[in-house]
# Entry
Amino acid sequence: MKVENDMQKKSLTALVRHHLNHARDASSGRSAETVYGGHAHVLRQTLIALRAGQHLGEHDNLAEATVQVLEGRVVLTSDGASWSGWRGDLITMPSGRNSLEAVEDAVILLTVAKLIAPAAS
# Structure
């Protein structure tokens, strides 16, 4: 009997370097890749690189989410409050409307655990 092994390994260091270079060259000033998860999973991790001055516009956060700063500096804003994050920081995103700005060239790992709707009874 063959047992499937779902173990995967990715170098975040290599991904940071690749996506930061891509963001610096891209007209949008950004680059992103889902490194784990997707529509069929509860957990989703997305690596996002932003050139200094670029934003992730306001969006609703209805799930549990964190932002880990892998490179550079960012500011997360929610309901008039803001938090600065530097390389190595982990920011827990509050629920509600959030936006993120790269104060300097930055790469973050956005982790979201989607809420699962209760089964209909």
